[in-house]
Amino acid sequence: MNYDITPMGKFIDRLSLVTGVVLHPLLMPIYCTILTLYTVSPYAIMPHAVKTSVLLYIGLYACANPLVVIGLFVWWGKVSSLQMPTRSERIWPLICTAAVMGLSLFLLTPNNTPRPLVGMVLGESLLLLAAGLCSIFWKISLHAAGSGAFLSYISVTGMAYNIDFAMMAGVAFIFAFVTAWTRLYQKAHTPRQLIAGYALGIVTMGLTLNSIMNNPLF
Fold first, then answer.
1. Where are the alpha helices (DSSP H) in the chain?
2. Close Cβ partners of 35 (under 8 Å, ≥ 6 residues apart)
3. Which of 89, 111, 146, 190 is 20 to 30 A from 217, alpha carbon to alpha carbon?
4. Rounded to the nearest 5 degrees, what angle is found at the Cα of 206, between the Cα atoms of 205 and 210?
5. In sequence order, what are the residues at sequence separation of 6 or more whose Cβ sits closer than 8 angstroms to the Cβ of residue 114?
6. Is 142 exposed, middle or buried (CB count within 10 Å of its CB: 0-12, 13-18, 19+)?
């Protein structure tokens, strides 16, 4: 990563750090859950105890477990850090993380989890699997993929329930743009890697979420 010692460079480095944490792909499920349970969606009327239970399930199976999986790879010395800076480091951690998230669906489905969130978890697991397989040949931006998936989730759920999420989508887009700009500035990714990440996130989450929400089995 290219660090700049000028005042502007230091500001961008800090901005990149903040946006990198705030928009980390593993936090996207939490944002989707809060958006679904605590806004004007049909699920806002769910009892508080049920909402808390769903939020804990999503936090555990879609955020904490993947973090543990990647942390184990770091502990085993197979990965240099949780950021997985090189292409080759990402392959097996991402594939294993996708498997953990996919298996969590067996626990999420019977526990009053809203259908959009079931689709979100499945979409996120498929996205991580696709990113892991892509890493065999090419490095793709995981932050861009997560941002694209979040934008897709906002769009699909908004249209499905006739909710105006325009302001939320605008905020998400601005943060995604800032993240992309700082990544380019620090030469962490190329424009192709960022564009590919956004496209992969949007398409994977959009198709998966549409399929789940139109499937009577969920």
1. 7-22, 28-37, 48-58, 65-75, 87-103, 105-108, 115-134, 142-160, 166-185, 191-213
2. 41, 153, 154, 157, 165, 168
3. 146
4. 115
5. 36, 37, 43, 46, 54
6. buried
Query: What is the distance, to the nearest Å, from the Cα of residue 44 to the centroid of all Cα atoms in its chain?
Result: 22
Rg of the chain over Cα atoms, rounded to whole angstroms, equals: 17
- pLDDT tens digits, one per residue of 91-145: 999 999 999 888 877 776 656 788 899 899 899 999 999 999 999 999 898 888 9
Of 110, 114, 134, 112, the C-alpha closest to 204 is 134
pTM across the whole model? 0.87
Within 8 A by CB and 6+ apart from 207, the residues are: 123
Dist. CA 94–CA 91, nearest whole Å: 6
